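Pasting as-is:
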Amino acid sequence: MTTWQELQKREGRAPEWPYPIRYEKEQAIETDILVLGGGIAGCWAAISAARKGVKVALVEKSATVRSGAGGPGCDNWCDVPAHPLININPDKWAQGRVDAAGGYACGIARQIQGREDYDTLLELEKMGGKIRDYDGEYRGCLGYDEKTRFVVVTGLSPIKEVLVWGTTFKPVIKKECERLGVKIYDRVMATSLLTEGGIQGARVVGATGVNNRTGQFMVFKAKATILCTAGVGSVWVFNTELAGISTFRSRTASGDGAAMAWKAGAELTMMEKSGMLRLGTGYKHKWYGGAGDASYRNVPLVDANGKALQVQNGRWDLIRESVLKGEYALPFYGDFPAMPEIERKITWGMMLGEESTTSALVKMFNQAGFDPARDMLQNYQLIEGSTPAHWRSVDAGGMRGGMVIGWDLKTTLEGLYAAGEQLYAPGDHSFAAATGRYAGRKAADYIRQASEPVISSEQAAAEKARVYAPIKRSDGIEWKELHAGIARAMQYFCGEYRTEKLFQMGLESLQDIEESWVPRLYALDPHKLMRSLEDLSILTYAQIILHASLARKASSRFLDFHRIDYPEVDPPEWRKFITVKQENGKVKTGELPLGYWGNLVENYETRNRDYQGVYQG
């Protein structure tokens, strides 16, 4: 086999790979609880479990200190009904979220979030995260509370968010993991779940992984595993440089957790859900008001002639009509200089400066000499072009599919828990934090009575062979080509126009890719090996989407799912969750009634009698 270094030298390419290559070498790790994914949910799961005195290992594909969608930061702690300045009944709030989604929401997770995310926020403050204006820097701004130094978001009715200094969060929760003795394995991509006896559908007893710098194979044995990896950012887009909806959907969000769980035999739901992908040249909904995020609605918009725009309830279709009539002139601008000084300061310095999707842009603009007291910023609304209809995303509306779970956030597989974006219909930062914290303590309780795990050496060896297949070739196709093929198949056969025939053709096309092109996939270094394995996760994810789409023989407004051959929208007999899983290698579909979790309040309180939170009902 030609090694990466040998090929580099032979072809006169430089520099050489900067890390030692350890292909084929194995490292075995034993732990009580294994957390896969070191984002917000993963770190909280690890902290919560470790505080119960159990041994925890955390595996992260990137670097835990800043990894995940919330790693760079967040500017508001969304949906925190138990906050004293918000004071919304958390139970009514949770049921309201379910009702607003037509029943297609994870009621269990929303109940957990409603009851516990303020507790989670206060716990974060004790670790060193900044959640209030200690120095009075923003005193006098809208939503400022002099007594508590909290700043609530005033652009929502009712108010349900509080502004925070999210750039401080990820470093302190990583530090807390380390303080509690959590063993962190950075730069390790989890590749499969290991099951008892190597049997699909059996108890999960650990996982495998590969170091994306050295290529070393890793085998983790655990009494319980918590899936906290990211969702998937790119299934329909074949340009890998446009791999996500926005900056916080990195290429590493490749659906690894769902793919691993599917192969292990876990049940998933809402996998047919998708929506229009909004790729843009500017972050219009983050920069200027009236187009989305409530935190920024105080930034006035003007047209090219300085005329103030009147955007009512985000109705940009009306603005478009006014542009066509000549009433407004493009482009539009965010008129920061027209804002009161304190509002301009908190909007630019905190709301944008702390948010993961905009913090890097604020830094870049500041370095370039931008002064919000003097300069306006161009808004890209209406001039960036229309997104092609077949470019879709599972992320639209925050209602993607995920694991079927019960009240302990345990999946349908024994020993496997899920939190954050691994849940169906997940939420944002506070959702990930609260559900991760909850799953960690439930998994820690579970292992008290769990038997010792036993790994199938045959299953681990088979996975090792699969993982290393691309590095045993020196030509063929690389990961970007494979990704383009998968995305094109999804555009053709699972785009805006959907029928039984198209879905079947899509599965046939993906099967052809799997049988004809995956065996030609090659990787010249551990990083490209990781990218190749991500593509294989995306391939599996795409297949799950098509199987779920075939199973729902009706259209649904709530799922943004529209079939030409079944045009009736949300008929009563199809108001239900469709589930999919593999059983003995065969796809099996099922269903769950909306509201299968029962009474949210009673079931939460029955299972959490010992929990002492701020809100006591």
